[in-house]
Each structure stands twice: as structure tokens, then as C-alpha cells.
Amino acid sequence: MSLVHNFPFISILLCMSAGIFTSVFKPRIARMVTFLVTGTVLLLSAMALSLTMSLDDSYPYMMGHFPAPWGNEIRIGRLEALMATGFSAVLLVSLIPGFERMPGFVSEKKSNLYCIMVDLALAAVLVLIYTNDLFTVYVFIEIMTIASCALVAVRQNGHTLVAITRYMIMHLFGSGLLLLGISMLYGITGHLLMVPLSEAVRQIVDGGQYLEPLTVVIALITAALAIKSAMFPFHVWAPDTYAFAPPLSSAILSGIISKAYIFVMVKFFYRVIGMDIIISQQISPFLFVCGVAGMIIGSVIAISQRDIRRMIAYSSVAQIGYIYMGLGMGSAAGTEAAMFQMLAHAAVKSLLFLATYELINVSGDRKRFRYLHGAGYRNIPAGIVFTVAAMSMVGIPFTGGFIVKLNLAIAGMAFGGWMRALVLVALAVSTLLNGIYFLHTVVSIYRKPAQDMVYPPSEKMSLPAAGALFVSMLYILCLGIGSEPIMRLIETGLKTFS
Amino acid sequence: MILILAIILPIVTGVLLPVMRLKARARNLYMMVCTLLTSVLVAIALTGDFTQLELISLNKKLSISLHLDDLGKVFSAVIALLWPLTLLYALSYMKDAVNQTSFFTFFQMSYGVTLGIAMSANLLTLYIFYELMTLSTLPLVLHSGLAKSVKAGLKYLYYSLGGSAFAFIGLVYLVYFGGGTDFLPGGLFVGVGSQHTVQLQLGYLLCFLGFGVKAAIFPVHGWLPTAAVAPTPVTALLHAVAVVKSGVFAIIRVTYFSFGTSVLEGSYAQYISLALSAFTIVFGSAMALKERHLKRRLAYSTVANLSYILFGALLMSAQGLYAGLMHLVFHALMKITLFLVVGVFNRRAHAYYIEDVRGIAKALPVLAVVFVIGSLAMTGIPPLIGFVSKWSLAEAAILSGGLLPLLGVSALLISAVLTGIYLIVPAVTMYTRPPVILAPQKVESGFYVTLLALSAMIIALSFYSGPLLDFLYQTALGAI
Amino acid sequence: MEGLLLLVAILLPAIGSLMVVFMPWLNERREERCFFVGVIMVLECIVVLLIALDAERTLVLFEMTKQLPIALRSDGTSRVFSAVMALMWTISGFYSFSYMKHEQNEKSYYAFYLMTLASLMALTLSGTMVTMYLFFEMMTFISMPMVLHSRTKEAVAAGIKYLIYSVAGATMGLLGIFMLTPNIASPYFVEGGSLLVEQLNLPHTAFQVILLVTLIGFGTKAGMFPMHGWLPTAHPVAPSPASAVLSGVITKAGVLCIFRMIFYVIGPDYLRGTWVQWTLLSCATITVFMGSMLALREKVLKKRLAYSSVSQVSYVLCGVFILDTMALDGALLQMVFHALTKDALFLCAGAIILQAGVTRVDEMHNLGKSMPWTMWMFTICAISLVGIPPLGGFIAKWYIAEGALITSTPVFSWLVPVVLLISAMLTAAYLLPPSVSSFFGGMAQAETAAIAYEKKDPPLMMMIPITILTLAIMLLGIFPGFMIEVFTSLANTLF
């Protein structure tokens, strides 16, 4: 066992301790620490990734002295390491412009609280990625919920408070369902660690004794995670929350945290229950339909939005729909496509929120489309970055979005009849709808503003911030061009995931 | 190597243009040099025989690659020939316009992208460049920033996106059933069993409708007449030559090199597409007749003429493809001439409608003659070039037998009569009615050079087209 | 080079036309220009005569594609038609030297006049269907400026109507050419047709429908129902010498195309006895009748003559469509005589308009007193047109009628002569009263009989052509032998 094997654990530990220590630091230092921690996590995860690439299978890691099933355990495989690397990269790049704009949203007193929350959120994400037992899942989901709430509520604003209330109600409801499900599962199987759990579930299925309770458990846990990740029709809390939070928080929430919930769901399906049961119990068709509906309806509502941030928030709902459509297909190809979309969307969404904020900033802080005309010329880097991100959302070739579409479509082709038709048509319609609102916006930001529009002068974007946005954009383009190695990683990682 | 260079050069030089901040004369010179250089590269590429060049590999079956076969050579040659001429025209046309830098940037980039379409070795590459073409030509439509331009641009965008989305489905069908998207003569399914034939035909139909947006088939033609608000060099080159011919080119590739005639011949997919193109021929001509705005009239005429090409190609025979290719080349030449003449009328005489050009022959005699030549050629009056392509189309249709091809021939002839009316009658009024516009502005020599060169080409090709036609025939035979 | 003479026949007027446009020295004085044009036309007649006397020659001009040669050939039909047309053209040309003094834009008139002659010669000398189509279209475009000559709104509208009808008709013809090309043995015209009936790639009915459409399309130039609508608007609005050739000569171009299609491509045997023949005969007879009826109602002189052309040219078509030797003879005779007669009548009408300012037939009374020579010519031509022996019109109509009677075509074998008779009576009704009233005035003109009328006959330059035509009508009417011989030998090669 080399040093690198410990890296995932170290990264979790680092985040948590940073969170604790930040409470005593000055705000500037706090931000620096958060930044450094994220950078370190990225490095560590990358090295862990290269380690897992050389290994055949994923390896378990004892947390503490007691081996499973008595002690706690995390498991590290290619897929997990890839996700960790991807998410931490996105977070790192988002922090630079995000922190720069923070004084506009967060008072100085609260800013190290904010950093603590970011650290905790990162820790929680890492744990959820690596964990191998349900209890830890529950605990860290709760931590993540609270951290997200704080990340949003720190902006003291009427809209925000209303949004956060709705958020809390739905998420706590979801958490309740989760707890219920986990307790029931413990009740019928007697295990909380995932490996013994899966054996127990096998026995139940073969034996046929507790089949209905099992189905109920699956339903509860799925519903809980669906609510938390804003799957249609449980997405109601999402648009306002994303729209009215500080841009960095929106980036983190919609980009990274929602993906963590979905990852947990995938882990649950693959490792605990087994995909065959999920399919036979009609869970995956349900997810498929919700995914498709979300894709279309999310985009339709986005078209009608007047405020650019709400438009992007609804588009998140639509993009999550893509993931659920892929997952709901039930095949390995579908899930792989969904995973790729998770990575791609994380990058694009964070980029979008941050760039949009920059554009709003140079338009006199006004969010309606009328006022955004010409923003692309007032802040050239943000305009370019927004354009590329929009292209990825629509699915223009050379961006990550296109690869997502391609993989989803090919995965859909393997099925016959209705599913294939639905997948293809939904992708086609969704492309068009996305085009309507995103590319229309791109055209708007490059239009000449009306003659009488007066924009107050605003400070230009600093070089690091612009640089960070560019790096993010490059990330999207790389996903579009060099997607093959990543897809291969996902494919092999998924095989060893269960 | 040359292929990628020919594509990259215009794109890079286009992107560099705003960075360089050149003065007007320097910029014009720079543009001309880069465009000519690219055309020279294409010319070199035409003479050689280049094997497939793989650029990026997405996975085992999918890659982005370039290859220049006969069909690609035909299209590249047309583009490379007409682009420098149109640039020369555009330099005079845009002389006093605003935002020239952004205009020329995207104009140049579109050149590279169009060449990319011509040189694609597989459907994925073509699709990628096709989408990029929508994006690189959109700013050209939007150029003036007026409300109507924005509306036109958005309409173009939505239609194109919708089309690409459907073409994408066809692409996925090919990947799934054919194991890849390479272009092979005869298609990917030659000699393979027919369990999936119906599915493939459905996939083809979706692809046809998808690419058919750019090829302006009814009912997805609506963006083209609206896009006539763009500056004339844009409408002429892009919407009469590059964009729309890319749509037609894509359909030809998909028909002959992806799905293949063995799958499609005699199928419902062929019948539906033939019927649509025959209908569009008549529809486009009829709408052109109704339209009084000159550029929109020509736009509808393009709608009809594109379906001539498609009609020929959809006959699924070497004869048909040959006729279609002939019309592709000839129509590009004729339509660009007409658009450029009308552009001068727009810009220097402020004549936008049919009524405005009455009697203009007195003030602008050379231009009126060019318009007459273009009109006679478009109508198909022998011995000018339009006649030979119409003849070949009819010949191919009759050879293939069956009811639908014969209906197509009638559609062709009805369209010919309508074309005569909507083009030649205005040409006549240019000479016979008292002038409406009395004092047009001075017409620069750049305009004259371009237009006379194009007219000379039309006349020359009318009498001596042997080698060209032989090459086209060889291309058509090679595709089956 | 074989066939060089054919090329000369086309190039001579074409180059002459270009010289009229571009050479300034020709345009300084109108007498020089007229002289030049006159010389060109006379030379042209000589060339055409030489071609007529020479053996049959072929000349390929260029190849549009390998299968579409554009070629000239001087066979029997070409010689007949080209001779008639060239002579008519020249005579009317000489008339116009005097007439056009009173109109504007003479230069463009003569230029188009000569160029149209060139295209007409090319049309008559065409050796393949596509060549014929090419020159047919070309002729439409080149003759149109003559229609529009006066540039008034009506003239331009009439010109555009002419254009549209002609293009539509030519396109209908083109349909047939498309369909026939794969089904004939040779792209060149072959006497008796070269249709490969057994190998048709279409069901017969569809093929016959297409043939009908084709022939009706080519019939547009000849003003046959249902494509006659342009003629009464276009012919009168042109200057009189142009009307003369439009009515007298260019309509025959339409007849020529039909002639070529039936006798040199499809072959009369294929059409004989089919519903296509009956439909065509119906169209032709309807036109004969309708043209005469409309002429009767029409009060404007030139328009009356135009409607009369509609009717008379369809006599020719009737004769052609009977598909029999004698009827064909009659048709060709009628063609010649109608050309001569209608030409002369239009030239007289021109004189009347010019000298007396009279455009309507109800103003023509007493005209004979002031323009006796003109009105005598008019009357003689009218009599010929009605078909009264011994003038030429009679022979033509006799042959057509008898030709119809001796065939076994149902209905039409008696219908055609009946219609011809009725039409003759109508022709008399619409041509003779103006003639008569011009000499004898109205009733109760006793007082005016004493008035001395100013002599307003037109100048010699206009009178001589009219006289030549009228003399030709009389002589050829009395001694038709030579023509009948030529036509019969031609007809015999075709059946």
C-alpha cells in the first residue's frame, strides 16, 4: 500500500480540518486556505486517478482500525477518482472569479463562514463519492444540505430567503424519506455497509420474502435523491435557489452538489440493489420518463423566462433530465453517457453562472434581457466564454455537450421501438429548444443596445478571473474533442463499480 | 496535409483579423491575398490524390477525418472559384458599411468551414462542419443589427438547429446500424442483409428532412427568403452557393455514400423525398412569381432550383446524379451572377423592388445586359448553360421510368415557364419602361469586373463544357 | 466545308444586323441605312435560292453534349419554307423603308428585323429537334422587340403577353422533345419520321397525351386554339410592316415546327386514326371558325386582319392534320398564299393608316376615291383570301377540302370542308364590305360624289411591294403548276 492509496482519505480529512480551522482565520486568509485546499484535493485526486488506472479493480480502504463490517470503509475505483478529480477541478476554477465577486454578496463578517461551508461541501462531496456504507451517506447528505443552505442564505435578500425556505422544506422532506428508507433497509437486512447489504438484498430477492418492503425502500431512497438533485417533477425548489444565490454558490450547487446526489443514487443501484432489480421493479422506466419530461419541460419554461439567471436555472433542470434519461435506460451504455454528462454539466453550469454574473455586472446590474444587449462587447472574455458554454448546452460539435448527445443517442439506439424513438426525438427537440433560448441570448448579448440605454461604468474583470474562465472553457472544449479516454475510463470504472 | 491547411488558413486568418486592427486598404489586401491563397491550395489539392487524413478520433468507430474524392473535388472547385470573385465584389459593396471587420472575419471563416464540408471523409465530420457553418454564417445575416436582420438571423438559426437535430438522428442510425459514418461509394450497406431496411429508410428520411433545411425543401424552406435581408455578398455567396449547396451536398453524400442506393431505391423514403422535391420545384417558382422584392424573388428561385438538383440526385441513378451535379455547378454560377447584379441595383440605385428597376437599362446598360444573360440562362434558354442541365434532368427522369419521375419532368417544365415570367419580364421592363430611378450612384470597377467575369464564364461554359461534363459523369458513375 | 452556304444564310443577316447597331457611318443618313439593309436582304434571297437549287447539305455547328448536336440541314421542307420566308421578308422590308420614316427608333427596328430573319433562317434550316427548339426560342426573344417597338404601355403589355405565351408554348414543345428523344432512331429529322413504336418506354396513352401537348405548344406561334390569345393583341400593336411579317411569316414558323414534329420525327402513320389527330383537327377547325367570327365582330382594321390570320393559319393546320398527300398540298399552298395575301393586306392597312389616318373599318367609306390603287390591291387580296377563283386562295382551299373528303377520317372528312365554306362566307363578310364601301361610299352620297378627292395613295416605295405581292397572288393563282409539283413531290417523300 503506497502513499497514493491514502490520498482519497487524506483529501477528505484535509477539507474537514480546513473547515474547522477557517473559523478562526481572517477572511482573506480563509479564502486563500479554501483555495489551497481545493487545489491540493485536485492534485491528490488526480494522482489517485492515475493509481486506479494502473490497478485492475477498485480497492477498499479502512477508515480507522477496524475492518468492515464493524468499522467504516470507503472504496476507491476509477470512476470515483475520475469524479473527484473532475469536480475538484471545476470547483477550483470557479473559486477564482467567485471569490473576487464575493464582497458584493457577502458581508465581510460572514465571509469566513462562507469558506467553511465551501470546505464542508467539498468534504461531503468527496465522502459521498467514495463511501461504501449507507449511514455515512445519510450523515454527509445532511451535512451537504445544511452547507448548501448556508451557501445560499448568506446573501441576505428577500428573494433569497423565500427561495431558501422552499429549499429547506423540500430537502428536509427528502432527507426524511431517505432516513425512512435506510432504516427500513436496515430493518430487513440488518446491514449498513454496502457489500454485505448487496448480498442480503440478493438473498431477499431470491427468497422472495420481503420483496414489497424492498421495493418500498428503493422507491423511498430514489425519491429522496431525486428531490435533492432536482429531477422533474421534484425540481420546484431549484430555479429560485439557483437564481437568487450568489453566483459562486449557484455554481457549486447546481454544478457539483446535485451531481453528488445522483452519484449516490448510481452507487445505490449498482452496488446495493443491482440494476436488474431496478429495471424489473419499474424504477428505471420511471426515471427515464421523468428525465425526458424534465429535458423538454425544463427547456420550455426556460424559453419564457425574462431574467437570465432564472433561464439558466431552468436549463439546469433540463440538463439533469439528460442524466436521468441516460440512467433510466438501464443499460451500461446509458449510465456511462449519464456519467459523462455529469462531468460536462458540472463544468458548463459553473461557467455559465459565473460568466452570466460578469455580463450582468457590466449591464448596470440588471438581469433582464433588454438590458443585456451589447454586454458581449462590454466584457469580451465573459461574452466569449458564455458563447462557448451556450454552444455546449445546445450540443454543437467540438464541445462536451455534443459528445453527451451522441452517447445518449447511441445508447438509446440499442433498444427498439418506443424507447429508441423517444430518446432520439427528445434529444432532437431538446437541442432545438436549448438553441432557442441559449443562442438567442448569445445573439442578444452581441446586439447593439438601444440608444437611450446608459450603463454605469464598472470595474473590469481581473486577469486571474478571466484566466480561470478561459481554463474552464478549455475544459469544455477538451471534453468535446478528447472525450475518448474519459469515456473509456468511465466504461471500465463502471464495470468495477459494483 | 494540404486539405487541413486549406481549411485552417481561412479560419485562422479570419480570427486574426479583428486582432490585427488594419486600416481599410491593408485589410482589403490581406483578405484578397488570404482568399486567393486558399483557392490556390484547393487547386493544388484538386490535382492530387490524397488519402484519408484522420484528425481526431472520438472512439473506435467515430473519427473526424478529411478526404477529397471526386464529388468533394466538384464542390471544392465551385467554392474555391466563386469565393475570391465574391470577395472582390464584397470589398466594393461594403465600402461604406459599418462593422466591416466583423463582417470580413466571419466571411473568411465561413470559407474554411465550407471547404471542411466539401472535404469531409465521413458523416460525423460533415455534421460538425455543418453546425459550425450555421454559427459562422449567422453573424453575417445579423450584420446590420436592425430588428429585421435579427429576426431573420434567429429564424435561420432555429430552422438550422432543428434541421441539424434531425440530421443527427440519421447520423446515430448510421453509427448503430452501419458501424460507422464513413463515406463509401454505394453506401455502408452494400451486400449486407435487409433485416433493418425499413429502419434505415426511416433514418434516411429524417436525415433528408434535417439536411433539407439548408437545402430549402418545402416545408422547411422558410428561412431562406427571410434571410434575403442580409448584405448581398452574403445572400449571393452563402445563400445561393455555400450554405444551400452544402445542404444539397450533404443530402447527396447521405444518399449515395452513406445509406446507398441499394437500400433506398424503390422505397417509400425515396418516393416521399422525390415528391417533396418535385413539389418544391413548383412551389418555389410560384412563390417567386408572387414576390415583388427582387432579392426575395431570387431567394424563392433558389428554393426551386435546389430541388432540381435534389430531384436528379434522388432518382438514384448515375444519370440522375450526373444531371443533379451539372445543375449544382451551373446554378451556382447563374444564381450568384443574378444576386450580385441585383446587389448593385440595391446598393447604388436603391432599387429594391421589381417596379424600381424599370428602365434602368438606360442608366446602367452593362448591368442590365448581365441581368438578361443571367435570366436567360436560369430559364433554360438554349444554348446557355441552364438548358443542358434541365435537359439532362429530364432525360434521367425519363430513363428511370415510373410515374413520379414523369411528374417531376412536368414540374421542371412548369417551373421553366414560371422562371421565364418572373425573370425575363423584369428584364424586359428594364429596357422598355420609362426609368424610375434616374440617377444612380457611381458603380465601382470592382463590381464590373466580377460581373463581367461571371457572365463570361456562363457564356464560355455554354459552348465549351465537354471536359467538365465528362468529369461530372465520371463522378456520378463512381458514386453508385 | 460542306454546308457553308447554310451558315452564310444565317450569318449574313445577323452580321448585317450587328453592323446596323454598331457602325456609326451607317446611321448618319437613313437612306444609307435603308440601302444597306435592302442589299443584305436581296443577297439573302440569292443565298436562299442557291440553297434551294443545291443538293441536300448538313452542317454541325457545335455539340451541346455528345448526344445533342446543334446542326443545320437543307432538305425539302427547309428549302420551301426558307424561300417563302426570305422573299416575304425582303418585300416587306422594302415597304418599311418608306413607312418607317414616320416612326421612331428606326435603327433598332432594322437591327431586330434582320436578326429575326437570321433566326428564322436558322429555324427553317434546323436539322434536329433541339436545334429547332433553340432557334425557336431565340426567335421569340428577338422578334419581341419588334412587337414592343412603339414603347407605349399597350405595346409593352402586348409584348410581354407574346413572350409568356411563346415561352409556355415552347416549353410544352420541349416536353415532347424530352419524351421523343429516347424513342427515335436518329436525332436528325428523317422523312416519314423515325419513331420506334415497338420500344416505347411509356404506355401509349401517356405518350399520346404528351404528343398532343407538344403539338399544341408549337401551335402557339401559329395562333391555334387554345394558345391563340396573344395573337390579336400582339400583331396589331406592332408597326405595320412588322405586323405583316408577324402575321405572314412568323406564324408559319409555328406551322413549320408542327410540320417537322409530325412528318420528320413522329411519323404520320403513328398519328393517323388516333384520338390525338381528332383533337388536333378539332382545335384547328375551332380556330378556323372562331377566328372568322371574331374578325367579323372586330371594328379596328388591323385587329380584324389579326383575327383573320388566326383563322387562315389554321386552314394550313387543318390540311396538315388530315395526314394525306392532297390535303398536305393544299396546306402548303394555303401557306404560301396566305403569306402573300396577309402580308399585302397588312401593308395596305399600313398605307391606309398612314395616309388617311383611318384605323377602323367603319371609317373606310370613300377611301377608294382617294386611294384607288391601294384599295384595288386590298380588294384583290380580299377576294383571294375568301377563296374565289381564279385567285390563289381558291386552289389552296380546294385542295384542302378535297383532301379531307377523300380520306376516311370520320366526321372530319366532311366537317372540314363545311367549316371551310362557312369560314369563306364569313371572310367575305368581314373583308368585302369595307372594300365595297370604300369605292361606293354610303347611300345618299350624291352630293359628295361631285367632290374631287385628294389623291392620297402612298409613295411608290410602299406601293411597289404591295403590287408585287398582289401580282404574285394573281399569277400563282392562275398558274399554280410549278408550286403544286414541288409540294407534291415533297409530300410524297413524307408519307
Keyphrases for this structure?
heterotrimer; A: 498 residues; mainly alpha; two-stranded antiparallel ribbon; globular; B: 480 residues; two-stranded antiparallel sheet
Q: Determine the strand fraction of chain A and express it as a percent band.
A: under 5%
Q: Helical segment tally of chain B?
A: 19
Order of helices and strands of chain B: HHEEHHHHHHHHHHHHHHHHH
As laid out across the biggest beta sheet of chain A, the strand order is 1-2
Poorly predicted sequence stretches spanning 5 or more consecutive residues of chain B:
none
Low-confidence stretches of chain A: none
Give the termini distance of chain A in whole angstroms. Answer: 22 Å
Percent of residues in helices of chain A comes to over 70%
Name the shape of chain A in a single word: globular
The helix content of chain B is over 70%
How far the N terminus sits from the C terminus of chain B, by CA atoms, comes to: 28 Å
| Overall pLDDT confidence of chain A | 86
Strand percent estimate of chain B: under 5%
Number of strands of chain B: 2
Protein structure class of chain B: mainly alpha
Structural class of chain A: mainly alpha
Main beta sheet of chain B = 2 strands, antiparallel
Plain-language structure description:
- The complex is a heterotrimer of chains A (498), B (480) and C (495).
- Chain A is mostly helical and 498 residues long.
- Chain A is built from 21 helices and two strands.
- Chain A has helices at residues 7-22, 27-54, 78-100, 108-130, 134-153, 158-189, 194-207, 211-228, 238-244, 247-273, 275-280, 283-303, 308-328, 332-361, 369-372, 375-378, 380-394, 400-413, 417-445, 463-481, 483-495, and strands spanning 59-63, 72-76.
- In chain A, strand 1 and strand 2 form a beta hairpin.
- The mean pLDDT of chain A is 86.
- Chain B is mainly α and 480 residues long.
- In chain B, 75% of the residues lie in helices and 2% in strands.
- In chain B, strand 1 and strand 2 form a beta hairpin.
- The mean pLDDT of chain B is 86.
- Chain C has a domain at 272-495.
- The chains are: A mainly alpha (498), B mainly alpha (480), C mainly alpha (495).
- Chains in contact: A-B, B-C.
- The interface between A and B is medium-sized, with 33 and 30 residues.
